[in-house]
Amino acid sequence: MIGLQVHESPIKKKLERDQTIMVERDWSSLPFDVLTVILERLRWSSHPSFALSCRHWHSAVPPFYPAWITPLLLNTARVGVTNLRYYSPYYHKNFEVGSDGGGHMLGAARGAKICCGSGRHLALGMSSAALDVDLLTGVVHKVPHVYKTMFDFIIYGDDACKMFGIDAVVPLKVAYVNQDDDGDWEDWTLTEFDINGPRLIPSPVTNPVIHRGLIYLLGEQGRLAVYDPCKHEKGFEILDKPMNFGFECYDSYDIYMFESDKNKLMVILIGQRGAPVHVVTLNENTMEWDKVDSLQGRALFTGTQASMMKKAELEWMQNRVFLPIFYKWLETVHVDLVSCDDELAFIPKSFSNTDYSTANEDGENCVDMWSYKLGQQEAAREFWGAEKMDYSIWIDLN
């Protein structure tokens, strides 16, 4: 009986060899270009966890600074007309975005006043018009103006598709404008002029604040004027209460109003050379200002037209007030502002000689230059030289 010899086909051998290689190769050996493609499809907030998987995966994660961790101080001080800088209290660095990354809007807005921000949108005021700027793309939309001079205050509505303009020259006047589906802004709608309308001397350094759907304008002594957008024709109404802040308030105070992260209407008063500092909140039952002794682990960012309070994860930032001071300058990282799945991050243009540490954990330099511990009794020397400028504003890109 003759035996038959069975030969395995070359194709079968190759399949078995490939399967063996796949079993032996684990996820840590994925090609670098594959990891890059995966990262492009993940949110920025997932990158740190991705980098912790193994050394190979960590090498594929590009250096980046999340732009949503704390509010950023957007400013144009000491920068050319084509660049923007964002100061981050978390990293204690300036991130400079050039003309190719959303900063070129300043070329078309020289001399403009920064009025307010809403997410990635920034409103600028000029003598002939207002401008709506997309900070990510640099696209500028012109908003028609109805006055020979700009409004005293311009703020966005609950989103960046509506603006309100407020003329604080007595009597108070208010207007609104909407953005259409094509991104163009319509004409302003004004309240009728009334020579006997409401009169209030507003705090000159703080924007009106939207609180529970109403717009509040703060007077220098704690009085409030309120406007209901649903009753536009009625304009502003000055409330009977509160009548004052509950303590003697001098003209030397800078007064800033904001809505806290817990939807409370609050005010910070900063005395000459940084002391004293008072924080009050509106008791909406009694309509009086109540003194606040602690920020309850939060940080307050103020000193510009827009102020905001946020929960602080780092201990050194808790119960601190942050103000812009420009007599000292910080390390500047040249970056692109990039979006990934609705999250924004600063991507350095050059990776050499750059420290990509997660944060300044101890905060020593930041404390000396930028912040004030609530309850501190002595005059805060770090406030000396604090600037109130039309070219800086706190914004939240979260």
Automatic annotation (TrEMBL):
Protein name: F-box domain-containing protein
Native organism taxonomy: Eukaryota, Viridiplantae, Streptophyta, Embryophyta, Tracheophyta
InterPro entries: F-box-like_dom_sf, F-box_dom, KIB1-4_b-propeller
Source domain of life: Eukaryota
Domain KIB1-4 beta-propeller: 172-322
Transmembrane feature ranges: none
Residues annotated as domain F-box: 27-61
